[in-house]
Amino acid sequence: MRIMDRRSFLIAAFSAVTATPALAAAKKKRIAYQGAEVVEFRTPERRGTVIVNTGERALYHVIGSETAVRYGVAVGKAGFDWAGIAKIGRKVAWPTWTPPASMIRRRPELAEWADGMPGGPDNPLGARALYLYANGRDTMFRIHGTNEPWSIGTAASSGCIRMLNEEVSELYENVRIGTKVIVL
To answer: Which domain holds residue 175?
Structure first.
């Protein structure tokens, strides 16, 4: 085992301290999302499975033994995130959005939509919604479009997975009821 001398220790410590601000700045800098792409993706999961990596802010739709379509997504804010295994239990085009009571308590201005906001371009669920079910019950989490495309790549939602409207529409057409969804 090599013992670090004082000089090496001081150089390493200085490097770590001075590199921290640069690393923090690099982490804050967001790269603009360039759109869906087919990528190499090794997984034991079957073709058709949807895997959401919340840390990467990416959704992978497995299309082959070592390939997937990678979509950028927005994920749940701290305290609103969810992870688990579910199935697509329902698919809806231009879904009605009904804010949950807990959201209305946090944001009283949403009370006007307590009975639901009709689907359309101003609706927060966007063009399509895939409803996630576990053990036969609605998890209350969704993969859906957004009327806030700038949120892709961030932790911005109340737990759901947001996608660009054109990309969630593509995914909607390519998955079935019962498709396995893994959220990491």
So the answer is: 33-183
